[in-house]
Amino acid sequence: MGAQFCPYCAAERWALVSALQRFGTMTGYGKEMSNDGIDGFKPVPTYDLRAARYDSLYVSFSDKEIFDHNSKPLDPLSSGEKAYVNQWDPSGGWPFIVINGQYAGLGPGYSPALLQGQTFDGVAGQLQRGDRNAATDAILKEASVISAYVCAATGGFPRTACQG
Amino acid sequence: MLAARRAFRLAFAGPASYALAVCGAVAMLLLLLWSGQMLQRYPSGWELHVELAELLAVLVLAILFGLLLPLEAAALARTTRAGGAAGGALGALFGMLSVSCCAPVVVPGLLSFAGFSGTALLAFNGAVRQLALPLTCASLVLMALSVVLVTRGLDASCDVKRA
Fold this sequence. Notes:
The complex is a heterodimer. Chain A is of the alpha+beta class. Chain A has one domain (2-162). Chain A is 36% helix and 16% strand. In chain A, the strands form four sheets. In chain A, strands 1-6 form a two-stranded parallel sheet. A two-stranded antiparallel sheet of chain A has the order 2-5. Chain A starts with a strand and ends with a helix. By secondary structure, chain B is mainly alpha-helical. Chain B has one domain (2-162). Chain B has helices at residues 2-11, 15-35, 52-78, 82-98, 106-113, 118-130, 132-162, and strands spanning 39-42, 45-48. At the A-B interface, helix 1, helix 2 and helix 4 of A face helix 5 and helix 6 of B.
């Protein structure tokens, strides 16, 4: 769960998608930017996951953007999602991730400053090429944390994603 | 103007008052920066990110709060000025509300403690974001107003003592 204007959510989506791609295939996503100037951050490139399709034998995925770029309400939460927010996110913050109702994470795992001012294609290219820099290291480290929780939830499947 | 000067002279009579003012201003500055997520700890270390307008508002609020504390302490030593204290607290509260982005800390934490649900606070946090400018203005006005109120009260108490 995130918000379109939010630079922290924009940063966290890179790690989230990177983690999910270890368990399945993400298609149909768009390219997005967080709002300029929020908490002093320049626009942070990110995925638009609202229309994305995620295919996996092990994991299902739902993305909710609760506010748009103008802080207007966007995606309503289901009753199950509301229950997770009430249980795990009592102060109503975002970005917020719940994994299988067992694990929850609030806030970004790294600073949006690492990605601000870059383009979506630039960051995606660095990740695809396996470039090593502060941004890709932070994304992959956070992706590994998310993956570890997903693996714990799936009982260690698939082995290709959960071993090593 | 003369009354204000008299009240400030009374409140800032010794080094302890200056220390109180500086400590109060610094504490308020840190609280506002932290509660507004402008000062954050990441695995890579502490980072400060803030818009210029936000920074100016936060600095002015912190300075006003620093001025308010010795004035309030001096006023309390003479008489109770509940109006000034309430104005200062409201100014700080509105300040914390106005500088929040995505997971503001202090006010939603307090509301959560008071029994508000996470989903209710999601909507609250979104609404607060849309009201950031008026809330910032209100917090500055309230804090300035509380300084003026306490200054007047303090000066008035001097007149009573003199009489």
